[in-house]
Amino acid sequence: MRTLCASTLIGEFFVVGFAGLVAMKDPGLSMTTVWTVSGIVMVLSVLLCGMITRPGGVQLGWALQIVLIASGFFVTSMFFLGAVFAALWWASVHYGRKIDEAKARFAAQAEAQGEAEGHAV
């Protein structure tokens, strides 16, 4: 799960950076505000890569997805991109857990098979 979720978060890092560039064109937003908010979200997305497997990591990822969708109020295209990344986040968590379960199952089978072969000798 960690690899899939981290890949999604790194993609979000770049999307937020590009959205910051687009937001700079809005005369109602100061450059300082745009890059402070964008910078915080970008740093959080990178830090969250290391927190995925810790308690609350997935929930923080969901909170980040909500922030991305809400950023559409400032950069309209972020409504769509935020929804796309929320779907990617769901898929990363859902299929990542299935992959982790399959890996654990295969490891347990290999260990049991190894023990059975060890006792047979």
Helix and strand element order? HHHH
Indicate the mean pLDDT.
Answer: 92
Radius of gyration: 20 Å
Roughly how much helix do the residues carry, as a percent range? over 70%
The share of residues in extended strands comes to under 5%
User: What is the tally of beta strands?
Assistant: 0
Taking the sheet with the most strands, its summary is:
none
Low-confidence stretches: none
Structural class: mainly alpha
Structure commentary:
- This protein has 121 residues and is an all-alpha fold.
- It contains four helices and no strands.
- The longest helix is centred in the last third of the chain and has 44 residues, at 77-120.
- It starts with a helix and ends with a helix.
Describe the structure in brief.
The protein has helices at residues 2-23, 31-49, 57-70, 77-120. It has 121 residues and is mainly alpha-helical.
Describe the protein's topology:
Layout: H1 2-23, H2 31-49, H3 57-70, H4 77-120
Q: Tags for this entry?
A:
121 residues; mainly alpha; 4 helices
